[in-house]
Each structure stands twice: as structure tokens, then as C-alpha cells.
Design a protein that fits this description.
Elements: H1 14-18, H2 28-39, H3 41-47, H4 49-55, H5 61-85, H6 92-100, H7 102-137, H8 145-161, H9 164-191, H10 205-208, H11 213-224, H12 240-270, H13 275-281, H14 286-295, H15 297-331, H16 350-369, H17 374-406, H18 414-437, H19 439-443, H20 447-474, H21 476-481
Helix pairs in contact: 2-9, 2-12, 2-15, 3-15, 4-11, 4-13, 5-11, 5-12, 5-17, 5-18, 6-7, 6-17, 7-8, 7-15, 7-16, 7-17, 7-20, 8-15, 8-16, 9-12, 9-14, 9-15, 11-18, 14-15, 15-16, 17-18
């Protein structure tokens, strides 16, 4: 089946037609819930907000989150427009191929896939460490953190094997509980006036530009990473040309407002005059201290437990996205064709899921055997993944500009196809520059490790690019299918 005429949006059933067995009826809310779980709102609140306050731009943290939200909304407009006219599954992979060609598309696919594997491995380190601390803190047995990570792995691998609708239900329940707890935290702090009263100072220009704004922006961006995964579920979505743009914008707005309000509540609970100093002195415990003070002991215990379920939800979401990239590359012939076969009963990418699970297990095991701690694994690979995704987003914005400039017979406006992707591209390039300047802080590692990781990121893209050029001469039929392109 050929792709639709360039000037016409993809029809609702076209994505299923070009697929290879994935089916589903996911709506906007289903996609949004599955994607939001990747952001791990509670884990982000407990683990990142205090860092943005303490080591970023201090009281301006809420403003930093809103600024990142605006930048990503500009990105979402062009991204959504591409989803209407490029019916091919694969998200970044498909959209970059459509605008910049197959070599760039495959290079980006390798880059994005490696970033998802990195964030998944990083979260196994975080999950094991957080669970170990919880169990030991409550008087449980003292065992190595990776035993808990193995339990996470078994559970995630099992659920990811089945249709994403099952995961969406699980993720939805966990996410709703997380958001409710965060709302209780916010209300408890604001209703009691915080430590020094409620102030709008965090939303002033002076607060926004204070401290290390670059660190605040890059860590703020890291908490948004994953929202772009809405498009990866295209084949399993009802009316994807409408659902995906809506879900993407919904996710970005929710994350931005959620973190802006919750960081404001945290600052209010700590007190404007002490928020930065306390966050620097106790970045891992400041949120929990405020929670216990304003919401009580029971709430504090619930939050410590839900931190584990939040991490689990993020794991499951990451696995689902990783699996679908593997599946798309297999359907295109880049990876072994056997991985591009959907389960006959569950209509899930079951083989790709099992392969992804196995790779996660092997990679994490090798890092443990190499002597890396859980904290090293999390900080190194979560930071690297955020950096890689920002690069992929910048390339996608450029692709949107090129695609709609080349195909002027679409119904996409100048605002959707040129202006917003251009603003997004500039914003993302600034974030990438800031990430490079602050990469050692981003991964909490040495300059040598930072240099190796950044070079590795570039090398991953180059490997995919060069491999595509090789396929053009050695396997032209596979080259023609890169990015699920059905015509030359």
C-alpha cells in the first residue's frame, strides 16, 4: 500500500494498514497515561526538584519548568503536524527519515534506541537502590540492591509482553495515585501557608535568571523527556492523526504545570529564605521532610512506598517504547525480521519485547560486574539518555521544517510547519549547549566520563548513518524501507 498523497493527512486506519500486526484502540487519555508514567512524577518530585532548587536557579525553579514547557509546546506543534502527514510508525525514526532522508533517519533511530536503553538501565539502578533503602529503613533484611532490580525486571518483562492496553491500565492507576499524592502535598503546604508564607517571588524575572539557570533548564528538560513517545503507539491508536497531537500537547502541559506547582509548594514548605540552602544540604531528603511536616507521618510513609511504584511505572513505560523501536526496525528489515512479528493473540510486539528485556538484563549485569554502584548506573545513564533525546528532538524539529518546506501542498500553516519548529530548534540547541557545558553535573561524573559519553552519543548516530549508506548499495530493498517508507 502506498503512502497518502503528501497534501492529504493520513486517514485514521492507514497506520494499521502499513503495520505488520500491531492492533489497538487506544485513545488520547490512554496514550497520555502510558506516556506520563515515563516521566515518573513522584520520582521526579522526590529526586530532581530539590536538585533544581539547590544547584539550579534556586527560587526560580517553578519558572524554569514553565519555560521548558513553552519550548516543548513549540516542538509539539511541528511534531503533531508531522504525525498527521507521515503515517509511518516509529516516531522520531519515521519523522526524521521523512524530512532528512533515510541515512539521517536510521542514525537517529540508533541514537534514540540507545537512549531508551540507557534510561531503562539507569532506572534499574535507581529502583534497586530506592527499594533497598525503603526495606532497610523499615527494619527489613540487608541484601544487595540488584536483587530488587531483578524483581522489577521480571515484573516489567512480563507485563510488557502483552498488549499495551494492559500496561496502560496499570500505568494509569499508578499515575493517578501519584498525582493525587502530589496534590495532597501541594494543598497541605499552601493551606498552612508554608514556613514563611506564600510568595509569588518564584515566578519573577529576577528569580528565573538567578543562580545556575543552565543547570535548571537542562534538569528541567530531563523531567519532560519521554513525552515524545506518544507517536510510538501509532499502530495501536484510534484515529492517530488526531489522537497523537492531542496526547502530546496534553502530556507537555501536564508535566509543566505539575512540576511548576509542586516545586513552588516545596519552596514554600522550606521557606524562601532557606529553600536553596536546605536543598543543597539535603537534596535527597528535603521533599520527604516537608511532606512529613505539613502532611503527617502517614502521608510520608505512603509517599516512600509510592516512590517505588512510580519507578516501576516509569520502567514499564520505557520498556514499551524501547520494544516498539526494536519492532519498527525489524519490520523495516534493519533488525532480524523475526523481531518484527506481532503476537497472534495479544497483537503485541512480544518477540521484540523479550529481546529488549534480555538486553536490559545483560547490559545491567555487565555494569554490576564492572563494579559500578546503583547511584553511578542511574546518574550516568539517565543523564546520557536525556542528552541524547534532546539531540533527537532538535533533529526532528529541523526535519519538520525541511519536510513542510519541501511539501508546500499540505494544509499545514506557516505557524505549524515553519515558525514553531524553528523556535523549538533554537530552544533545543540552547538546551544542548547548556547540557554540554554542564554534562559532568548532569551525570554526576568526571570530565573524562562525560567526554566519552558525549562522543559515544555522536558515534551512535554516525554508525546508523553509515550503516544506511551501506544498505543503499548492499541491500537496496531494506534501504527503501527505512523509516517505513513505502516508496522511493
Amino acid at each position: 500500500m502506498n503512502r497518502p498523497a503528501v497534501g492529504q493527512p493520513a486517514q485514521p486506519n492507514e497506520a494499521e494498514a502499513v503495520g505488520a500486526g500491531l492492533k489497538g484502540d487506544l485513545g488520547t487519555l490512554d496514550i497520555a497515561l502510558a506516556t506520563l508514567a515515563y516521566a515518573g512524577p513522584l520520582a521526579g518530585t522526590a529526586g530532581y526538584i530539590t536538585f533544581v532548587v539547590g544547584f539550579g536557579n534556586g527560587l526560580g525553579a517553578p519558572s524554569a519548568f514553565l519555560a521548558v514547557m513553552v519550548a516543548f509546546l513549540f516542538f509539539s506543534v511541528g511534531y503533531g503536524a508531522l504525525s498527521r502527514y507521515v503515517p509511518n510508525p516509529g516516531a522520531f525514526y519515521a519523522y526524521i527519515t521523512a524530512g532528512l532522508g533515510r541515512p539521517s533517519g536510521l542514525g537517529s533511530a540508533f541514537l534514540v534506541l540507545s537512549s531508551y536503553f540507557c534510561i531503562g538501565v539507569g532506572f534499574y539502578g535507581f529502583a534497586g537502590l530506592a527499594t533497598q533503602q525503603l526495606v532497610e529503613g523499615w527494619g527489613g533484611p540487608v541484601i544487595d540492591w540488584w536483587y530488587y532490580s531483578l524483581i522489577f525486571w521480571i515484573t516489567v518483562a512480563t507485563l510488557a509482553y502483552f498488549h499495551v492496553a494492559i500496561s496502560a491500565k496499570v500505568l494509569g492507576v499508578v499515575l493517578i495515585i501519584e498525582v493525587l499524592l502530589a496534590a495532597v502535598f501541594d494543598i497541605a503546604v499552601f493551606s498552612q501557608g508554608g514556613k514563611e508564607g506564600i510568595s509569588l517571588e518564584p515566578f519573577t524575572w529576577h528569580a528565573f535568571t538567578s543562580g545556575q539557570l543552565g543547570i535548571a533548564m537542562i534538569f528541567g528538560a530531563a523531567l519532560f523527556c519521554g513525552f515524545e513517545a506518544t507517536a510510538i503507539y501509532r499502530e495501536e491508536t484510534r484515529n492517530p492523526s488526531v489522537t497523537i497531537p492531542r496526547a502530546t500537547i496534553l502530556v507537555v502541559v501536564f508535566i509543566g504545570i505539575f512540576y511548576a506547582v509542586t516545586s513552588w509548594a516545596l519552596i514554600t514548605g522550606l521557606g524562601n529564605s532557606q529553600a536553596v540552602a536546605i536543598s543543597v544540604a539535603n537534596p535527597a531528603g528535603a521533599f520527604f521532610d516537608v511532606a512529613k511536616q505539613f502532611a503527617g507521618e502517614l502521608f510520608y510513609k505512603l509517599v516512600t512506598i509510592l516512590l517505588i511504584t512510580s519507578t516501576f511505572a516509569a520502567h514499564l513505560s520505557i520498556q514499551n517504547v524501547t520494544t516498539r523501536y526494536v519492532y519498527s526496525l525489524a519490520v523495516d528489515g534493519v533488525f532480524p525480521a523475526s523481531l518484527g512479528v506481532a503476537h497472534q493473540r495479544h497483537f503485541s510486539p512480544s518477540r521484540a519485547s523479550m529481546t529488549s528485556s534480555l538486553l536490559y538484563l545483560i547490559f545491567t549485569s555487565l555494569l554490576i560486574l564492572a563494579g559500578l554502584s546503583a547511584a553511578d548506573i542511574y546518574s550516568w545513564f539517565a543523564g546520557l539518555a536525556s542528552f541524547s533525546i534532546l539531540i533527537a528532538m532538535a533533529i526532528t524539529s529541523l526535519s519538520a521544517i525541511v519536510y513542510f518546506r519541501r511539501n508546500r501542498d499540505t494544509e499545514v500553516t506557516f505557524w505549524q510547519g515553519t515558525l514553531t519548529p524553528s523556535v523549538a530548534l533554537i530552544s533545543l540547541c540552547v538546551m544542548i549547549y547548556l547540557a554540554v557545558q554542564n554534562f559532568t553535573s548532569l551525570i554526576n561524573g568526571s570530565q573524562a566520563v562525560a567526554d566519552i559519553m558525549m562522543l559515544g552519543t555522536v558515534a551512535t548516530f554516525v554508525i546508523g548513518f553509515v550503516y544506511a549508506l551501506r544498505l543503499r548499495t548492499s541491500r537496496p530493498n531494506v534501504f527503501a524501507r527505512i523509516g517505513r517508507q513505502l516508496r522511493n
